[in-house]
Amino acid sequence: LGAVYLDLGRHDAAERVLRKALQLNPADPWGYNALVELFLTAGRQLPEALSLARKLVELAPTAPHHFLLARACAANGDRAAALAAARRAIELDPDRAEYERFRRQTDGGR
Fold this sequence. Notes:
Elements: H1 2-7, H2 11-24, H3 29-42, H4 46-59, H5 63-75, H6 79-92, H7 97-106
Helix pairs in contact: 2-3, 3-4, 3-5, 4-5, 5-6, 6-7
């Protein structure tokens, strides 16, 4: 349901449903992922997005989750941490051009 609200742009409703999902199942990475995406897309609650992204990577240290952490770090102005997370995403999945593009953009084109 949270994903449906997110797709419809109903951010407040999506946030309520996603927070409830996290309360019910705090070990499920999906809720963290969706809530971080919501906050980054909406450009709000960025410090919380960063905290949730860190928790997400602890729960499931996959390439997409490291990339989401990189985006959350960048949104919070932490370029060094964004680059480190992007590099880890690239190590885990070197075939995703999106990760390398983000790394280069964040690293000033290098």
